[in-house]
Amino acid sequence: MAEWKLVIHGGAGVIERERLTAAADGAIRESLGRALEAGSATLAAGGSALDAVERTACLLEDDPHFNAGRGSVFTYQGSNEMDAAIMDGRDRSAGAVAGVTATRNPVSLARAVMERSPHVFLAREGADAFSREQGLEQAGPEWFATAERRRQLEMMLQSEDYFDAELKYGTIGAVAVDARGHVAAATSTGGLTGKRWARIGDTPVIGAGTYADDRAGAVSATGAGEYFIRAGVAHEICARIRLLGEGAQQAADAVIAEIGALGGSGGIILVTPAGDAIFSFNTPGMYRGLASASGRKVAIYADEGAL
Ligand code: ASP
């Protein structure tokens, strides 16, 4: 039996000590810890990486601290449109949704697309209709909307700073390797504050924000999605491991460096079937955490070191 591991993120960005109050810092660490605890329970009981990443992602989606599910950022028009994806490293089956508005847990809708439709990627009204047909739990706009995210939209509309890399990041992700050595990845987001024109980021794009392949590893990304799509980040990291034989950290750092060279920022989390569990980011901080049979650790700032 392999050793199970779970790594999570809650977004990367300009997350610095002087920007977070002690209360917010503590609350976020607690939220990350709770999510790790739930996913760990699945893995410790012999559950699959796929079940663990879905369960963990659902908890983070329900938590208003993060930009996914409840607490998603607002679009320019003042609505919440969410993107999510999930992928199973055993056979590279995958499901994704973009611009969904009424499913309480978009990651579970992505899983339903993977398991109960012949498709990989559904969008907007069609994806919302599929969700109702499949009997997934629905939620009204008031469930997703929070006062803090509305304030952020208002600030952005005033500044007309369309693409911002501030604290509004908060996309969530989970990657896991289970006791059988299988990997899975899940990512979920509200996207960018003030997004327009049905903009879709990297999160639900298989190979960009989310990828899992038992021959390499499972990756979930967060950051400036446009750059992550252009670099095919999650697939590129797995391809480097599989085809070049690079180590997990080396492959991840190389692709994040490419993002930086293009002018983008953000980060990724990665596990491999061999048990590597790492992160890489080029922002001042990334909400992140690791759980294994030997314990749990959460971190926020760059200087907090390895997980
Ligand atoms: N990557 C997400 C997007 O571009 C945003 C984020 O990670 O905060 O939609």
Descriptive overview:
With 307 residues, the chain is an alpha+beta fold. The chain has a single domain (5-304), classed as (Glycosyl)asparaginase (Glutamine Phosphoribosylpyrophosphate, subunit 1, domain 1, 4-Layer Sandwich). 36% of the residues lie in helices and 25% in strands. It has helices at 22-44, 49-62, 106-116, 124-133, 141-144, 147-159, 225-231, 233-244, 248-262; strands at 5-13, 82-88, 93-100, 121-123, 172-177, 183-189, 210-213, 217-223, 266-271, 277-281, 285-292, 295-301. Strands 4-3-2-6-5-1-11-12 form an eight-stranded mixed β-sheet. It is globular, with a radius of gyration of 17 Å. Bound molecules: aspartic acid (ASP). Aspartic acid (ASP) binds next to strand 8. Aspartic acid binds next to strand 8.
What series of H and E elements makes up the topology?
Answer: EHHEEHEHHHEEEEHHHEEEE
CATH superfamily (homologous) name: (Glycosyl)asparaginase
**Can you tell me the CATH topology?**
Glutamine Phosphoribosylpyrophosphate, subunit 1, domain 1
Tally of helical segments: 9
> How many β-strands, per DSSP?
12
Note the beta-strand portion.
25-35%
Mean pLDDT, nearest integer?
A: 95
Apparent shape? globular
CA-CA gap between termini: 22 Å
Q: Are there runs of 5+ residues with pLDDT below 50, and where? A: none
What's the CATH class label? Alpha Beta
CATH architecture: 4-Layer Sandwich
Largest sheet: 8 strands, mixed
**What is the gyration radius calculated from CA atoms?**
17 Å
What is this structure's SSE topology?
Layout: E1 5-13, H1 22-44, H2 49-62, E2 82-88, E3 93-100, H3 106-116, E4 121-123, H4 124-133, H5 141-144, H6 147-159, E5 172-177, E6 183-189, E7 210-213, E8 217-223, H7 225-231, H8 233-244, H9 248-262, E9 266-271, E10 277-281, E11 285-292, E12 295-301
Parallel strand pairs: 3-4
Antiparallel strand pairs: 1-5, 1-11, 2-3, 2-6, 5-6, 7-8, 8-9, 9-10, 11-12
